[in-house]
Amino acid sequence: PTGVSKRTPGIAEESDALSNLYRLLHCAMFDLGLDGCRSAASVFEAFLSSFANYEELKRDMLFVLDLVSELGEAAVATDDIAVKVAAAERGTILFGMLRSVLEARSVARDAFRECAGFQGMIRFLSSYQGSESDSSPVELARK
Predict the structure, then answer these.
(1) What does R_g of the chain's alpha carbons equal in angstroms?
(2) Residue 101's closest CA among 51, 26, 138?
(3) ∠ CA 136-27-112 to the nearest 5 degrees?
(4) Residue 96 has pLDDT above 50, yes or no
């Protein structure tokens, strides 16, 4: 029979949209320029700011923190200063997005704490320890 699906249409559409949004942010952080990163982060910020469901907010907060972790790993895996600078700039964009969401919503602050967001920030920053002249991400971005 036509039109029969084991998935509930609303849930499937929501899942597909979420998957596309995740893909957009990931692609922007790793494949696009800084303007593309900022634009994708703005879209994701609006998405995070609209949540009423705590568990969904935590899920998406973990996704962002995983992206930050990937950026830190990319910085550690290379001696190329340009890659380190790019990772620092993109991490800064993601942290700026998170800061805006955290400032606006107390439930987001709770989710950030529960998702070990502070530890994620420290891991990202410490990924620059031992890099060229022990430069911090901020110092690298200024070069």
Answers:
(1) 17
(2) 51
(3) 60
(4) yes
